[in-house]
Amino acid sequence: MTDTPPAVELHVHVEGTLEPELIMELAERNRVPLPYADLDDLRARYAFDDLQHFLDLYYANMAVLREPADFAAMTTAYLTRAAAAGVRHVELFVDPQAHLARGVPVEAVLEGVAGALAAAPEGMTTGLIPCFLRDRPAAEAGTVLEALLASGTPLLGIGLDSAELGHPPSLFADVYARARAEGLRLVAHAGEEGPAAYVWEALDLLGVERVDHGIRSLEDPALVARLVEEAVPLTVCPLSNVRLRCVDTLAAHPLPAMLDAGLAASIHSDDPAYFGGYVDDNHRAVAAALGLDRSQVRTLADNAVEAAFVDDTRRAELRAEVAAWAQA
Ligand code: ADE
Ligand code: ZN
Protein backbone atom coordinates (compact mmCIF):
# COMPACT_ATOMS: atom_id res chain seq x y z
CA MET A 1 0.00 0.00 0.00
CA THR A 2 1.33 3.42 -0.89
CA ASP A 3 0.92 6.38 1.44
CA THR A 4 -0.85 8.43 -1.26
CA PRO A 5 -3.94 7.37 -3.24
CA PRO A 6 -4.00 6.35 -6.91
CA ALA A 7 -4.08 9.75 -8.57
CA VAL A 8 -6.14 11.40 -11.26
CA GLU A 9 -4.05 14.39 -12.34
CA LEU A 10 -6.29 17.08 -13.86
CA HIS A 11 -4.17 20.18 -13.41
CA VAL A 12 -0.60 19.91 -14.65
CA HIS A 13 1.07 22.07 -17.32
CA VAL A 14 3.48 19.96 -19.34
CA GLU A 15 5.90 22.89 -19.59
CA GLY A 16 5.75 23.12 -15.80
CA THR A 17 7.20 19.60 -15.59
CA LEU A 18 10.42 20.70 -17.32
CA GLU A 19 13.00 19.90 -14.64
CA PRO A 20 16.16 22.03 -14.35
CA GLU A 21 18.41 19.15 -15.47
CA LEU A 22 16.38 18.69 -18.68
CA ILE A 23 16.43 22.44 -19.32
CA MET A 24 20.24 22.37 -19.23
CA GLU A 25 20.41 19.20 -21.35
CA LEU A 26 18.08 20.57 -24.06
CA ALA A 27 19.88 23.94 -24.04
CA GLU A 28 23.11 22.14 -24.84
CA ARG A 29 21.51 19.89 -27.47
CA ASN A 30 19.84 22.82 -29.23
CA ARG A 31 22.65 25.32 -28.61
CA VAL A 32 20.27 27.71 -26.88
CA PRO A 33 22.18 30.21 -24.73
CA LEU A 34 20.72 30.53 -21.22
CA PRO A 35 21.46 33.33 -18.75
CA TYR A 36 22.34 30.87 -15.96
CA ALA A 37 25.90 30.09 -14.84
CA ASP A 38 24.96 26.52 -13.91
CA LEU A 39 22.23 24.30 -12.48
CA ASP A 40 22.51 25.84 -9.01
CA ASP A 41 22.18 29.32 -10.46
CA LEU A 42 19.01 28.24 -12.27
CA ARG A 43 17.61 26.56 -9.14
CA ALA A 44 18.30 29.69 -7.10
CA ARG A 45 15.72 31.53 -9.21
CA TYR A 46 12.82 29.31 -8.11
CA ALA A 47 11.68 31.64 -5.32
CA PHE A 48 8.66 33.56 -6.57
CA ASP A 49 6.94 36.74 -5.40
CA ASP A 50 3.74 36.11 -7.36
CA LEU A 51 2.25 34.44 -10.46
CA GLN A 52 3.86 36.87 -12.94
CA HIS A 53 7.30 36.37 -11.39
CA PHE A 54 6.94 32.61 -11.93
CA LEU A 55 5.53 33.02 -15.44
CA ASP A 56 8.57 35.10 -16.47
CA LEU A 57 10.90 32.18 -15.66
CA TYR A 58 8.47 29.53 -16.97
CA TYR A 59 8.23 31.19 -20.39
CA ALA A 60 11.96 32.01 -20.53
CA ASN A 61 12.91 28.37 -19.91
CA MET A 62 10.72 27.22 -22.80
CA ALA A 63 13.40 28.61 -25.14
CA VAL A 64 15.11 25.21 -24.98
CA LEU A 65 12.10 23.49 -26.59
CA ARG A 66 12.64 23.65 -30.36
CA GLU A 67 11.86 20.31 -32.03
CA PRO A 68 9.05 17.74 -31.65
CA ALA A 69 11.64 15.45 -30.01
CA ASP A 70 12.19 18.04 -27.25
CA PHE A 71 8.47 18.17 -26.47
CA ALA A 72 8.35 14.37 -26.54
CA ALA A 73 11.32 14.10 -24.15
CA MET A 74 9.69 16.51 -21.69
CA THR A 75 6.35 14.69 -21.86
CA THR A 76 7.86 11.22 -21.53
CA ALA A 77 9.92 12.32 -18.53
CA TYR A 78 6.72 13.63 -16.94
CA LEU A 79 4.76 10.44 -17.63
CA THR A 80 7.54 8.33 -16.11
CA ARG A 81 7.57 10.47 -12.96
CA ALA A 82 3.76 10.50 -12.88
CA ALA A 83 3.59 6.71 -13.01
CA ALA A 84 5.92 6.61 -9.99
CA ALA A 85 3.58 9.08 -8.25
CA GLY A 86 0.67 6.66 -8.72
CA VAL A 87 -1.01 8.65 -11.50
CA ARG A 88 -3.58 6.46 -13.24
CA HIS A 89 -5.16 9.11 -15.48
CA VAL A 90 -3.79 12.48 -16.59
CA GLU A 91 -5.36 15.38 -18.47
CA LEU A 92 -2.32 17.35 -19.56
CA PHE A 93 -2.25 21.09 -20.24
CA VAL A 94 -0.02 22.55 -22.95
CA ASP A 95 0.50 26.21 -23.93
CA PRO A 96 0.78 26.27 -27.77
CA GLN A 97 0.91 30.08 -27.99
CA ALA A 98 3.99 30.23 -25.75
CA HIS A 99 5.83 28.24 -28.42
CA LEU A 100 4.23 29.84 -31.46
CA ALA A 101 5.43 33.23 -30.16
CA ARG A 102 8.99 31.83 -30.37
CA GLY A 103 8.54 30.52 -33.90
CA VAL A 104 7.69 26.91 -33.01
CA PRO A 105 4.57 25.84 -34.96
CA VAL A 106 1.54 24.41 -33.17
CA GLU A 107 1.96 21.20 -35.19
CA ALA A 108 5.49 20.59 -33.85
CA VAL A 109 4.29 21.02 -30.26
CA LEU A 110 1.37 18.64 -30.79
CA GLU A 111 3.50 16.06 -32.59
CA GLY A 112 5.90 15.83 -29.66
CA VAL A 113 3.43 16.00 -26.78
CA ALA A 114 0.63 13.90 -28.29
CA GLY A 115 3.14 11.38 -29.63
CA ALA A 116 4.53 10.84 -26.13
CA LEU A 117 1.02 10.62 -24.64
CA ALA A 118 0.17 7.88 -27.14
CA ALA A 119 3.03 5.86 -25.63
CA ALA A 120 2.03 6.47 -21.99
CA PRO A 121 2.96 3.81 -19.41
CA GLU A 122 0.82 0.67 -19.41
CA GLY A 123 -2.53 1.22 -17.73
CA MET A 124 -2.35 5.02 -17.57
CA THR A 125 -5.01 6.88 -19.56
CA THR A 126 -4.36 10.36 -20.90
CA GLY A 127 -5.91 13.37 -22.58
CA LEU A 128 -4.54 16.64 -23.93
CA ILE A 129 -5.96 20.08 -23.07
CA PRO A 130 -4.34 23.03 -24.88
CA CYS A 131 -4.71 26.27 -22.91
CA PHE A 132 -4.99 29.78 -24.31
CA LEU A 133 -2.87 32.53 -22.83
CA ARG A 134 -5.31 35.05 -21.39
CA ASP A 135 -2.72 37.86 -21.50
CA ARG A 136 -2.55 37.58 -25.29
CA PRO A 137 -5.34 38.76 -27.66
CA ALA A 138 -8.49 36.64 -27.86
CA ALA A 139 -8.28 36.87 -31.68
CA GLU A 140 -4.96 35.02 -31.54
CA ALA A 141 -6.56 32.34 -29.38
CA GLY A 142 -9.25 31.98 -32.06
CA THR A 143 -6.64 31.49 -34.79
CA VAL A 144 -4.71 28.97 -32.70
CA LEU A 145 -7.91 27.04 -31.93
CA GLU A 146 -8.50 26.61 -35.68
CA ALA A 147 -4.92 25.35 -36.11
CA LEU A 148 -5.41 22.91 -33.24
CA LEU A 149 -8.64 21.60 -34.76
CA ALA A 150 -7.07 21.36 -38.23
CA SER A 151 -4.11 19.36 -36.90
CA GLY A 152 -6.24 16.27 -36.47
CA THR A 153 -4.62 15.63 -33.06
CA PRO A 154 -7.09 14.11 -30.58
CA LEU A 155 -7.90 16.86 -28.08
CA LEU A 156 -9.87 16.46 -24.87
CA GLY A 157 -10.70 20.10 -24.27
CA ILE A 158 -9.41 23.63 -23.92
CA GLY A 159 -8.25 25.70 -20.99
CA LEU A 160 -7.29 29.27 -20.13
CA ASP A 161 -4.15 30.20 -18.20
CA SER A 162 -1.28 32.70 -17.72
CA ALA A 163 -1.48 36.10 -15.96
CA GLU A 164 -4.96 36.31 -14.49
CA LEU A 165 -5.40 39.81 -13.05
CA GLY A 166 -6.76 42.22 -15.66
CA HIS A 167 -7.50 39.41 -18.12
CA PRO A 168 -11.08 38.27 -17.37
CA PRO A 169 -12.65 35.13 -18.88
CA SER A 170 -15.28 37.25 -20.66
CA LEU A 171 -12.70 38.15 -23.34
CA PHE A 172 -12.68 34.52 -24.49
CA ALA A 173 -16.43 33.82 -24.75
CA ASP A 174 -16.35 33.40 -28.55
CA VAL A 175 -13.36 31.06 -28.45
CA TYR A 176 -15.09 28.87 -25.88
CA ALA A 177 -18.34 28.86 -27.87
CA ARG A 178 -16.42 27.60 -30.90
CA ALA A 179 -14.65 24.90 -28.88
CA ARG A 180 -17.96 23.78 -27.37
CA ALA A 181 -19.46 23.49 -30.85
CA GLU A 182 -16.56 21.17 -31.72
CA GLY A 183 -17.39 18.93 -28.77
CA LEU A 184 -14.37 19.90 -26.67
CA ARG A 185 -14.52 19.88 -22.86
CA LEU A 186 -14.13 23.27 -21.21
CA VAL A 187 -12.00 24.32 -18.24
CA ALA A 188 -10.35 27.60 -17.20
CA HIS A 189 -8.04 28.93 -14.51
CA ALA A 190 -10.06 31.33 -12.37
CA GLY A 191 -9.88 32.58 -8.80
CA GLU A 192 -6.17 31.82 -8.41
CA GLU A 193 -4.90 35.41 -8.11
CA GLY A 194 -8.01 36.86 -9.70
CA PRO A 195 -11.30 37.64 -7.92
CA ALA A 196 -14.36 35.47 -7.41
CA ALA A 197 -16.01 37.51 -10.20
CA TYR A 198 -13.73 35.72 -12.67
CA VAL A 199 -15.08 32.37 -11.49
CA TRP A 200 -18.63 33.60 -12.15
CA GLU A 201 -17.54 34.68 -15.64
CA ALA A 202 -15.87 31.35 -16.33
CA LEU A 203 -19.12 29.57 -15.42
CA ASP A 204 -21.62 31.93 -17.02
CA LEU A 205 -19.76 33.26 -20.07
CA LEU A 206 -17.40 30.40 -20.95
CA GLY A 207 -19.55 27.51 -19.73
CA VAL A 208 -16.64 25.75 -18.04
CA GLU A 209 -17.25 22.31 -16.56
CA ARG A 210 -14.33 22.56 -14.12
CA VAL A 211 -12.52 25.48 -12.51
CA ASP A 212 -8.73 25.39 -12.15
CA HIS A 213 -7.70 26.69 -8.70
CA GLY A 214 -10.87 28.60 -7.72
CA ILE A 215 -9.50 29.14 -4.22
CA ARG A 216 -10.79 32.74 -4.06
CA SER A 217 -14.36 31.43 -4.55
CA LEU A 218 -14.62 31.27 -0.78
CA GLU A 219 -14.74 35.08 -0.69
CA ASP A 220 -18.23 34.98 -2.25
CA PRO A 221 -20.88 32.89 -0.43
CA ALA A 222 -23.30 33.08 -3.37
CA LEU A 223 -20.60 31.67 -5.64
CA VAL A 224 -19.85 28.88 -3.18
CA ALA A 225 -23.57 28.02 -3.14
CA ARG A 226 -23.61 27.88 -6.94
CA LEU A 227 -20.48 25.71 -7.15
CA VAL A 228 -21.87 23.32 -4.52
CA GLU A 229 -25.33 23.20 -6.11
CA GLU A 230 -23.87 22.33 -9.52
CA ALA A 231 -21.05 20.18 -8.08
CA VAL A 232 -18.49 22.07 -10.14
CA PRO A 233 -15.06 20.51 -9.61
CA LEU A 234 -12.20 22.76 -8.44
CA THR A 235 -8.66 21.56 -9.21
CA VAL A 236 -6.64 22.86 -6.29
CA CYS A 237 -2.82 22.98 -6.30
CA PRO A 238 -1.63 23.56 -2.72
CA LEU A 239 2.16 23.70 -3.22
CA SER A 240 1.64 26.09 -6.16
CA ASN A 241 -0.61 28.35 -4.09
CA VAL A 242 2.06 28.68 -1.42
CA ARG A 243 4.99 29.11 -3.82
CA LEU A 244 3.11 31.81 -5.76
CA ARG A 245 2.05 33.44 -2.50
CA CYS A 246 -1.66 33.12 -3.19
CA VAL A 247 -1.75 31.50 0.27
CA ASP A 248 0.68 32.28 3.12
CA THR A 249 1.45 28.75 4.27
CA LEU A 250 0.20 25.21 3.65
CA ALA A 251 -1.22 25.19 7.17
CA ALA A 252 -3.31 28.24 6.21
CA HIS A 253 -4.53 26.74 2.94
CA PRO A 254 -8.32 27.09 2.43
CA LEU A 255 -8.68 23.45 1.33
CA PRO A 256 -10.32 22.28 4.60
CA ALA A 257 -12.75 25.22 4.41
CA MET A 258 -13.50 24.32 0.80
CA LEU A 259 -14.29 20.71 1.74
CA ASP A 260 -16.35 21.83 4.74
CA ALA A 261 -18.35 24.10 2.43
CA GLY A 262 -19.14 21.09 0.25
CA LEU A 263 -16.99 22.14 -2.71
CA ALA A 264 -15.80 19.37 -5.03
CA ALA A 265 -12.10 20.10 -4.53
CA SER A 266 -9.30 17.78 -5.55
CA ILE A 267 -5.49 18.02 -5.32
CA HIS A 268 -3.13 18.50 -8.25
CA SER A 269 0.37 19.78 -8.99
CA ASP A 270 0.18 22.68 -11.53
CA ASP A 271 3.90 23.11 -12.36
CA PRO A 272 5.62 20.40 -10.32
CA ALA A 273 9.18 21.11 -11.50
CA TYR A 274 8.83 24.68 -10.23
CA PHE A 275 6.77 24.30 -7.07
CA GLY A 276 8.51 21.51 -5.20
CA GLY A 277 6.40 18.51 -5.98
CA TYR A 278 4.26 16.23 -8.09
CA VAL A 279 0.73 15.16 -7.24
CA ASP A 280 1.88 12.61 -4.65
CA ASP A 281 4.04 15.28 -2.99
CA ASN A 282 1.03 17.61 -2.91
CA HIS A 283 -1.11 14.94 -1.24
CA ARG A 284 1.60 14.19 1.31
CA ALA A 285 2.34 17.84 2.08
CA VAL A 286 -1.33 18.71 2.52
CA ALA A 287 -2.09 15.69 4.69
CA ALA A 288 0.85 16.55 6.96
CA ALA A 289 0.30 20.32 7.16
CA LEU A 290 -3.46 20.17 7.54
CA GLY A 291 -3.64 16.97 9.54
CA LEU A 292 -6.00 15.27 7.10
CA ASP A 293 -7.04 11.75 7.98
CA ARG A 294 -7.30 8.90 5.49
CA SER A 295 -11.00 9.45 4.86
CA GLN A 296 -10.45 13.11 3.98
CA VAL A 297 -7.64 12.14 1.61
CA ARG A 298 -9.99 9.59 0.10
CA THR A 299 -12.64 12.29 -0.43
CA LEU A 300 -10.08 14.36 -2.32
CA ALA A 301 -9.09 11.36 -4.45
CA ASP A 302 -12.75 10.49 -5.11
CA ASN A 303 -13.44 14.09 -6.14
CA ALA A 304 -10.65 13.90 -8.72
CA VAL A 305 -12.13 10.69 -10.16
CA GLU A 306 -15.58 12.29 -10.47
CA ALA A 307 -14.06 15.40 -12.10
CA ALA A 308 -12.19 13.48 -14.81
CA PHE A 309 -13.34 13.62 -18.43
CA VAL A 310 -13.53 9.84 -18.83
CA ASP A 311 -16.21 7.37 -19.91
CA ASP A 312 -18.27 5.33 -17.44
CA THR A 313 -16.07 2.26 -17.75
CA ARG A 314 -12.86 4.10 -16.97
CA ARG A 315 -14.50 6.05 -14.14
CA ALA A 316 -15.65 2.78 -12.56
CA GLU A 317 -12.09 1.42 -12.76
CA LEU A 318 -10.64 4.56 -11.20
CA ARG A 319 -13.28 4.52 -8.43
CA ALA A 320 -12.40 0.91 -7.69
CA GLU A 321 -8.68 1.68 -7.48
CA VAL A 322 -9.25 4.48 -4.97
CA ALA A 323 -11.62 2.28 -2.95
CA ALA A 324 -9.04 -0.53 -2.88
CA TRP A 325 -6.38 1.92 -1.66
CA ALA A 326 -8.67 3.23 1.08
CA GLN A 327 -9.45 -0.29 2.31
CA ALA A 328 -5.87 -1.58 2.24
N1 ADE B 1 0.58 28.58 -16.42
C1 ADE B 1 1.34 27.67 -15.82
N2 ADE B 1 1.07 27.65 -14.50
C2 ADE B 1 0.11 28.57 -14.28
C3 ADE B 1 -0.60 29.01 -13.14
N3 ADE B 1 -0.38 28.52 -11.92
N4 ADE B 1 -1.53 29.98 -13.29
C4 ADE B 1 -1.75 30.50 -14.49
N5 ADE B 1 -1.11 30.12 -15.59
C5 ADE B 1 -0.20 29.16 -15.49
ZN1 ZN C 1 -2.31 25.92 -13.64
Describe this structure in words.
- The chain is globular, with a radius of gyration of 18 Å.
- Helix 7 packs parallel to helix 8.
- Strands 1-2-3-4-5-6-7-8 form an 8-stranded parallel sheet.
- The protein has helices spanning about 20-30, 40-45, 50-60, 70-85, 95-100, 105-120, 140-150, 175-180, 195-205, 220-230, 240-245, 255-260, 270-275, 280-290, 295-305, 310-325, and strands at about 5-15, 85-95, 125-135, 155-160, 185-190, 210-215, 235, 265.
- The protein has one domain: TIM Barrel, CATH 3.20.20.
- With about 325 residues, it is of the alpha/beta class.
- Strand 5, helix 9 and strand 6 form a beta-alpha-beta unit.
- The protein is about 50% helix and about 15% strand.
- It is built from 16 helices and 8 strands.
- The model has no long low-confidence stretch (mean pLDDT about 95).
- Bound molecules: adenine and zinc ion.
- Adenine binds near residues 13, 189, 240, 270 and 271.
Number of helices: 16
- Supply the number of structural domains: 1
Indicate the CATH topology.
TIM Barrel
Question: Using DSSP, what is the number of strands?
Answer: 8
| Assigned CATH superfamily | Metal-dependent hydrolases
Give the helix proportion (percent range).
40-55%
- Please name the CATH architecture: Alpha-Beta Barrel
Give the biggest beta sheet. Answer: 8 strands, parallel
Strands of the widest sheet, in order across it, are 1-2-3-4-5-6-7-8
Mean pLDDT across the residues is 97
Q: Which structural category do the helix and sheet elements fall into?
A: alpha/beta
- Low-pLDDT parts are none
- Global morphology: globular
Bound heterogens, unique: adenine, zinc ion
Order of helices and strands: EHHHHEHHEHEHEHEHEHHEHHHH
> Which CATH C-level class is it?
Alpha Beta
Radius of gyration: 18 Å
Strand content range: 5-15%
